[in-house]
Each structure stands twice: as structure tokens, then as C-alpha cells.
Amino acid sequence: MIRALVLTALLGSLPAAARPPRLTLLITVDALGSDVLLRNRPRLQGALGQLLDSGAYFPYARYAYAKCRTAPGHTTLATGTNPWRHGIVDNRWVDRSTGKLVYSFVDPAHPVLEATLKPGQDASPANLMAETLADRLRMATQERGKAVAVSLKSRSAIALAGRLGQAWWFDDGVGKFVTGTWYTKEFPEWVKQLNARKIPESYFGKTWDLMRPRAEYIGEDDRSYEADSYGLGRTFPHPLTGGLKEPGLNFYKAFGVSPDSHTLLVEAAKAAIVGEALGKDAVPDLLAVSFSGTDNVFHEYGPYSWEMQDTMLRLDKALGDLISAAERAAGGRANLTIALVADHGGATAPEQWAAAGLPAQRMNPKTISEGISAMVKERFGPDVTVMMEELDVYLGGPALTSGKVDGAQVRRAVADWLLKQPHVVAAVTREELFSAPDPAGYLAPLRKGYYPERSGDVVYLLRPFQVVYFDPEGSTHGSPYSYDSQVPVVFAGKGIKPGMYMTEIDPVDVAPTLAALLEMGMPASTEGKPRAEILTGK
């Protein structure tokens, strides 16, 4: 009799104990490489530091594909799969039907609401080839659960919202949050009210100054390889005018570099929480917030700069406001799950590496493209064209389409030319990519990032510390090396065992882990798996 009563009590407690969180908060921090977080962690005393202490912290998650960039990174996080399945191979690729570069989420059929559609602008998830966590939540709850994504960048918000959620991003052409007609035909009241507050304009004419005394920042404030864009200058304090007399495009771009953009995103997230009543009932909701300012700072000033150190301190503070709002909406931390992750890391300015004695150099992609074009023209004539986007070489032109020239022979010639360059470590044609031997493991990340309809005819990898960038200052990302591919992942919430987990995981595990915590099926194409150790501590 006693055993029966105990069993009855246990079974009766299971639904309450197993109830999924009312609200899942997915935070992505653009360009937050593991190295950046680990170096700054001792000074993080706010919400970010507390999250690392109270959550299951994996400092060494690593993307498995080669081109670690914003659009594929966010899409991988959202789908639990790599670009070879989800199809978002880069921020841009060459459209083979037109021979022109297009953005990853371009869609002329679904323009942006209340903003001029720029040529090739990201506008909808039409190019997304895999189901996202947001899509799965909407389907699993029969569209009762809500999924909202906000970011400064359209490609980040669209990837996280998927096809069935809501995506809102800040358009620096009009200075307000917008979306595409894929998602809605008119702004809801909460977005109208958010835009009416004109939060960025309240910072016009102010400066971005250091949060802490200058003596607490490591290194030098002024370095020759830092950029001077949008009237910000290279040293603190940075004026927030964009060089304009009143708010306009350059000001909004300058504001996007400053950590004041963190505040804007938090206010947008809070408006979404209230406007969409997120977390208010037992049906689970998803709020995804992608902080883009860190990436903007990284590109302009580099990961070791005073600017990056300061933006990390301000992010640490801003996250407190966001998490507190999410907790209140969900009715407490017991009803909230939090995941924090980055879409990629980033290289330091190659001049800084070179000064320290590393074999680094800045390479203009135009130089590589011109070298390939000259070889192709000499060997196969002027009717074979060459286009490049980072690590992809696209070949076209009338000589190839007509069959006058053997395409396989041209592709092999390009790969051979690349392999002769001292800075290239691997180059392979599309025919050979999945069959060639790979003793050093260089082809594996190229394979996981390859989607035939969108990737190049020849793909290649550079040696470590080679930074391919059009700009003569600043830095970028897009390689499989740890400085670009290694990022932190943190899970926190009810039942999650705190600790530093030293296992190297793949960010494809984020979406299936959150799906498991939400007690629903995983996104359809996922390659990842739930990280069970966050519940057991083992």
C-alpha cells in the first residue's frame, strides 16, 4: 500500500517537474570568440559574469565548417546543422543564374516594410533550407507558442526567426526597427511605440567614453591598424555624430559600433516581451536576441582593443537588464531557460600578430582574384570569367556555358594555381572535394560548409594568420582556425548543473539541447545532439 502511494505521488509530480520553461532566451553575441571572453572574464562582474558562474559553461565550442561568418553561424545555431544542409554558406555568394553576388537572405518578392529595399538586401528566410528551433516551436505548439528574434543585423534576426517566427532588425537607412513582408504586412503596436521613442537619436552628439579608469585597460588606445570610420576616430572618447549635423546614415552606423547599441537591443527585447506577452502562460515561447555591436567593434578596432574591452564591460551590464526582464515575464528563473553563444570569433589585426613574430599578413582578395583571372585568361581565353567570395572561386562565361572549354580542366587549373601560392594550404575542385584524401583534415571544414548550388567551383584554405580583407585597417573572420571558429556556449536555468565543462562541443548542439529542454522534437535536419551532461553534471 505504501509503495502504491509513493508511486502515485511520484507520477503525480512528474508533469510539474517536467514542465518546459515558459520562456527560452537565446542570446547570441556576434564575434565573441572564446579567447575574447576568457581574457575579459576576470573583469565581468555583472550579468555575463554571473551567467558563467551559475550556468553550464562550455568555453570551447567549435564550428565544424570553414567560413565562420554571421549568416552561416546564426543559421547553424538556429537549425542544429551545418551549411551543407541548411544552405546558408556565407553572408553572400554568387548567383549562378546571373553571375552576381547576392546576400544570403535576399528576396525581392518580400520587401522590407517602411524602408527602401537596397539592392540585394536581406529580407526573408526564403533561401533557408532547414527547419529552425523557432519553426519547430511554432509547429510543436500548433502556433500557440511565440518566437521573436531581434538584432541590429537582418541576417541574424532572419536566421534565428526562421520561416515561422518574427524577425525584427534595425535599419540604419531609416533609423528604426523593420521587418520584411514575409513576416507581417504592418508593424504591430509595440514596434510602432518602440520606434517612436527614437532611442538612437537620444545619443546623437554624445560620446562613447571609457566605462572604467584608463589604467584598467590593457595595451594602447591608439594603434595604426585600427580603423577610423563614421567619424568615430581611433581613440576615446568617440563622438557619436557620424560627422553629421543631425541623425542620418553615418550616425546610425556609428551608433551601431558603439556599445550604446546594446541598450537599444535590450529595449527592443523588452518591448517584444510586453507586446507579445512572452512567457505569460504555460505554452513555451522563444526570444532570441543577437548583439551585433561586438562584431562592429571587432571589425573596426580588433579583439584586443580598448574598444572591445569596453564593449565587453558594457555588455556585461546590459545583459542584466535583459535577463531581469525575461525572468519577470516568465514568473521567475524556474520558468526561464537561457542559452548564450556566439556565431564566430575573429582574427586580430595581422599587423599586431606580425609585430609579435607570427607569420601573419593582410591579403586583399582582389590580388588573389586578379592572379587567378590572369592565369585563366592566358590558358583558356577571355570568355571564361572568374568571381570570388572569400574562400570560393566561381567560374563562368560563354566559353564554359557553351562547352567550348572543358570546365573540369579550368577548375583543375585554378586549384593547381592556388596550391602553388605560399599562403594557400589546401585547394580542391568541386568534383574532388568529397573524394580527395584529407590526411591533415583541411578538407573536412570545407565539406561541411559546401552547398553545391551556392558554393564555388573551387574552394581553398589559407594558412593560419592570413587575413583576407578589403580594408587596410581593422580585421575580419571566416576561417576554420580556432581564433575564428571557437566560441563559448552557456546554458542556465532550472535543473541545469553549473560548472565549466571542458569538453569541446559543436554549436550544432545548441538547438537540439534547447529543443530537449523545451520537451519537443528537434529541428528536422539537425546534426547535433542534446548535451545531457548539463543536467547530470557529468
UniProtKB/TrEMBL annotation:
Protein known as: Alkaline phosphatase family protein
Binding-site list for substrate: 91, 153-155
Alphabetic keyword roster: Metal-binding, Phosphoprotein, Signal
Signal sequence, renumbered to the chain: 1-18
CDD domains cross-referenced by the UniProt entry: AP-SPAP (cd16016)
Molecular functions per Gene Ontology: alkaline phosphatase activity; metal ion binding
Organism placement in taxonomy: Bacteria, Pseudomonadati, Myxococcota, Myxococcia, Myxococcales
Active-site annotation: 70
Classification via Pfam families: Phosphodiest
Gene3D superfamilies: 3.30.1360.150, Alkaline Phosphatase, subunit A
InterPro entries: Alkaline_phosphatase_core_sf, Alkaline_phosphatase_prok, Phosphodiest/P_Trfase
